[in-house]
Design goal:
With about 180 residues, the chain is of the alpha+beta class. The protein has 2 helices and 7 strands; from the N terminus they run H-E-H-E-E-E-E-E-E. The protein is about 20% helix and about 30% strand. A 5-stranded mixed barrel has the order 2-3-4-6-5. The longest helix has about 35 residues.
Length: about 180
C-alpha cells in the first residue's frame, strides 16, 4: 500500500471516529435535556405574602418573612386582578392587586394605607401581551422576585413577577377584590 493512501485512510478513520464520538455525545446530551423534570410552580395566595414593611422609609429585606423570601427566584402561580391601565390590549406590564379572603378593602383614597403586598408588578413573557377586562380575576404564572421599587422615598411595590403568563379565571367563592375601584 502506498504511503499517501495509507495516510489518507488513517486520517479518514480518525475523522469518522471523531464524528461518531460527537454524534454519541450529542444524542446523550439530548437525552439529558429531555429527562430534565419540569420546574416546580408554587401556588401562592396574596395573603401569604403579607409583611409589616411600611411604604415610607428604607427597604429592609429582613422585614420580608422567610416564608416569602423562599419564593424569590421561583416560579409561582397567583390569582388577582389587573389594575386599570391606559391600554385595553397589547399590555406587557401591569400591577396586580389581590383576590383575598381577609375581608379588608383598601382604596387609594382610603385613610388606611394599602399593604405592601397588595400591589405586585407583572411583566409578561417576552413577545406576549394581555388585555384588560374590568373585574376579571386572573391567574398569573411567572418567576417571583423581591425587587423594591419606589419614588420620592415611598415604596410603590416590593414584589415582581417576571416572564409571566396570564389566564382568565372565574371568581372564587369567599374571595373578593382587595383594592377599590381607583386602584
Amino acid at each position: 500500500m502506498n504511503s499517501n493512501r495509507f495516510r489518507f485512510l488513517t486520517s479518514l478513520s480518525v475523522v469518522v471516529a471523531s464524528l461518531a464520538a460527537t454524534a454519541v455525545f450529542f444524542v446523550n446530551s439530548l437525552n439529558v435535556v429531555a429527562q430534565r423534570p419540569p420546574e416546580r410552580v408554587f401556588d401562592v395566595e396574596f395573603d401569604e405574602l403579607a409583611t409589616d414593611l411600611k411604604r415610607t422609609g428604607s427597604f429592609d429585606l429582613a422585614a420580608i418573612p422567610a416564608r416569602v423570601r423562599r419564593f424569590d427566584g421561583q416560579r409561582v402561580r397567583l390569582r388577582g386582578y389587573m389594575c386599570p391601565t391606559l391600554l385595553d390590549e397589547g399590555i406587557t406590564t401591569f400591577l396586580l392587586f389581590p383576590e383575598t379572603k381577609t375581608g379588608k378593602w383598601y382604596g387609594w383614597h382610603s385613610l388606611t394605607p394599602i399593604p405592601m403586598h397588595y400591589l405586585i408588578r407583572v411583566d409578561m413573557k417576552a413577545g406576549s401581551t394581555t388585555t384588560y377586562e374590568w373585574a376579571k380575576p386572573l391567574i398569573i404564572e411567572g418567576r417571583f422576585r423581591i425587587k423594591p421599587m419606589g419614588q420620592d422615598g415611598e415604596l410603590i411595590y416590593i414584589y415582581w413577577i417576571e416572564d409571566a403568563t396570564v389566564t382568565p379565571a372565574e371568581p372564587r367563592k369567599g374571595y373578593h377584590f382587595g383594592l377599590g375601584i381607583a386602584c
